[in-house]
Amino acid sequence: MPSSRRTALVTISGAAAALPALSQSAKPKPRTLPDTDFELLQKLTERIIPRTDTPGAIDAGVATIIDASLANDANRRARWQAALQWFAANGGDSVEMLTRISLENGTDGARHFRLLKGDTIDTYYSTIEGLKTELGWNANTYLAEFKGCTHPEHQS
User: Fold this and answer.
1) Distance in angstroms (rounded) separating the CA atoms of residues 142 and 136
2) What 8-state DSSP symbol labels residue 127?
3) Which of 8, 21, 132, 140 is the most exposed place for a label (fewest CB within 10 A)?
4) Shortest CA distance to 120 belongs to which of 132, 109, 133, 129?
């Protein structure tokens, strides 16, 4: 009997150790959006914040967080559905299309791009990947001064 108990414990502990790896490699499932819209949202958010030497939007689960946030907000969900339909009909996640509409004003593309960029950035920097990994934020750090953005073009 002891050997079967030992075998069971080894099996259980091995399965438990594999769970984090399985959950990290599993494709995220959308909660609100249809699968095709969710896949497009993942691609679009990764275009806004790609993986470099720090995690990108996909690593941070930005699309999953945005999708979940749409479940209880019908107006926001409708805006995102309209935006995703527009992106799908006008070039998907192509860099050329995103670059073009990022420079536009007053068009549907510009409006949808602002929604995409704003929600992607807000969501990314609310995650551990954005706050801690990208920005190096530590909640226990006291800043005597917050210098803000130092880019010359943002000093006006």
Assistant:
1) 13
2) S
3) 140
4) 129
With tokens 């107006």, the residue in question is: 75
Where are the alpha helices (H) located in the chain, listed in sequence order? 2-25, 35-48, 57-60, 62-69, 74-89, 95-102, 108-124, 128
Q: Which residues contact 88 (CB under 8 A, 6 or more apart)?
A: 36, 37, 40
- Say which DSSP state 140 is in: T
Give the span between the Cα atoms of 122 and 126, in whole angstroms.
Answer: 6
pTM of the entire predicted model: 0.71
pLDDT tens-digit profile of 56-83? 999 999 999 999 999 999 999 999 999 9
